[in-house]
Structures are given as structure tokens and as C-alpha cells.
Specification:
With about 180 residues, this protein is of the alpha+beta class. It contains five helices and seven strands, in the order αβααββββββαα.
Length: about 180
């Protein structure tokens, strides 16, 4: 009986320690990937300054052929909005809106995943020789709770591969 009590006490202590440690993890998680595209920034920019164009090379579009997508606002630039719904667990539901543009340099979007939270994403275009270094980034707010912050440790592994696949598709769209 004493052994069982000690094991239970040990488990409770480990869980309590993990919860407390979670409060010291970062609230914001940044994921970034980059790739060199063999084209100048002005050739890459149209592919990232329109969410309709983004849909053509998005790494998530092929995951659910039944995904419902709606666009609103202008076809390009600030105010361009894409909303989607999907039953696929890796796609889900959400809304993305272009909120800032620096022509041929940067596009910033706000993402809203409903109950899953919000994030800010961007594409940065930097000249690199005769090509363009494209950086795709995400800044996700994991919330004030320790569980969300522990989950934040997994974000790079969860999103990074999708970003790499998307950048490869962008490269093929621009260079092809």
C-alpha cells in the first residue's frame, strides 16, 4: 500500500512540475523555412500577394479535394481574404487575410483557425544573386496556459515540412 501511495505521489509531482514548467515556455512560437527561387522578386511577388495564387501552390490544397474555399475582398493585396472548411484533420477550417504588403519584398497575413487560435504569417522576398530568397514564416500565439505552450514545442515539426513542400511548389510554379 505504501508503494502504491509513493508511486501516486510521484506521478502527481511529475504532472505538477510539467504544468508549472509549461508556464515558463514561450507564448509565441516562430516557424520559418526558406528557399532560393531562380527568379527576381518581381516574378515571385504575384504568387504570394494573392491568396488565389497561393492556392495553386499551397501544400494543403491537395490534402482534401473536398475542401470548400471562398474568397472575398480584392483579388490581390491588402484585404484579400481566403476562408476554407475541411473535414481533413491536417487542413481544418480557417480564414486568412492579407494585412500588409511591401511591393516585391513582403506579404503579411493574419490567420484565424477558430478554436485552434490565431497566428501571423509572412513571405519575405530578398534578392539573392540573380534569384530570390523566399522566407515563409509563422508566428503563433500558443496562449497563456501551460498545455498550449507545451504544444508549441511541436509546431516546427508539424508545420515546417508543410512549409518546405509549399516552397518547393512555389519554386516550381515560378521557375516552370
Amino acid at each position: 500500500m505504501r508503494l502504491l501511495r509513493n508511486i501516486l505521489f510521484g506521478l502527481v509531482a511529475i504532472v505538477a512540475l510539467a504544468l508549472i514548467a509549461g508556464f515558463f515556455l514561450p507564448r509565441h512560437v516562430i516557424v520559418e523555412r526558406e528557399l532560393i527561387v531562380d527568379a527576381p522578386p518581381e516574378a515571385v511577388f504575384p504568387h504570394v500577394s494573392s491568396l488565389q495564387a497561393f492556392a495553386a501552390w499551397s501544400p494543403w490544397g491537395d490534402l482534401d479535394p473536398d475542401m470548400q474555399v471562398a474568397y472575398s475582398g480584392p483579388d490581390t493585396g491588402v484585404g484579400n481574404v481566403m476562408e476554407w472548411t475541411s473535414d481533413h484533420p491536417n487542413v481544418g477550417n480557417g480564414r486568412q487575410e492579407i494585412v500588409e504588403i511591401v511591393e516585391n519584398e513582403r506579404v503579411t497575413t493574419d490567420l484565424d483557425f477558430g478554436d485552434m487560435g490565431t497566428a501571423r504569417a509572412w513571405w519575405q522576398l530578398d534578392p539573392d544573386g540573380s534569384g530570390t530568397r523566399v522566407t515563409w514564416g509563422l508566428d503563433a500565439d500558443m496562449g497563456s496556459g501551460p498545455i498550449g505552450r507545451w504544444f508549441g514545442l511541436l509546431m516546427d515539426g508539424m508545420v515546417g515540412a508543410d512549409y518546405e513542400r509549399g516552397l518547393s511548389r512555389l519554386q516550381a510554379a515560378v521557375e516552370g
